[in-house]
Design a protein that fits this description.
Helix content is about 35%, strand content about 15%. By secondary structure, it is α+β, with helices and mostly antiparallel strands. It has a four-stranded antiparallel beta sheet, sandwiched between helices. It is globular. One of its GO terms (molecular function) is oxidoreductase activity.
Amino acid sequence: MLRWRRDVRHFDRRAVAEADMCALLACASLAPSVGNAQPWRFVRVRTPDIREALAAHADGQSAHAAERYTGQARYDHYLSLKLHGLREAPELIAVFCDEHPEAGHGLGIATMPEMLRYSCVLAIHNLWLAARLRGLGLGWVSIVDPPAVHALLDVPATWSLIALLCIGYPADTSDTPELEQRGWQQREPWADRVFER
C-alpha cells in the first residue's frame, strides 16, 4: 500500500460515493495533533466556477514556475509534465490550518507553533492512506499561490493553506511515481537520508 501511495494526476471521471468521502474525512480527523488541537479545516470545492478558477490559477502558476528552468531541455521537460488534476478529479479538497484553534489551549506550540501545520499534514497522510484502501488516488497540488487560493475560497484570515488535494479513481495504476516514470527524478536510497550523531 505504501509503495502505491503516490501522487495521482490522471483520474477517470467516476464519482466518489459520498459515504466514501465522509469516511476519508473521518479517517483524516483521527490523526494525532499537537495538544489535541485538531487544527485541520477541510473545504470541499463543489462549485464548478471555483474549480475552474483554481485550475486556471494553477496553470498560470505552472507557466510562471517554468521560467525558473534556464536549460531548454529541463524547461521543455517541465512543461511536458501534468502537474494537477483539478479539472478531472471528481473531488477537490483544500486543507487549511487554523493557526489559532480554541481546541488544545495552546499546548505544545509555545516554542514550535509550526506543529499545528505538521498536525494538518498528518491528517492529510491519514486521508491519503484511507483513500488508497478504497482504491482511490490523491494528488497534492502545490503549484498554487496560497493567498490566491485563500481569496478564491473565502476562508477566515486565521487559516493557512496546507494543501489542495485532488481525489478520485486513478486512470491507471503503477508502483512507480509518475515523475520517476517521466525521468524527472528517481527515488534515492532511503539510507542516504539517515544520519547519526
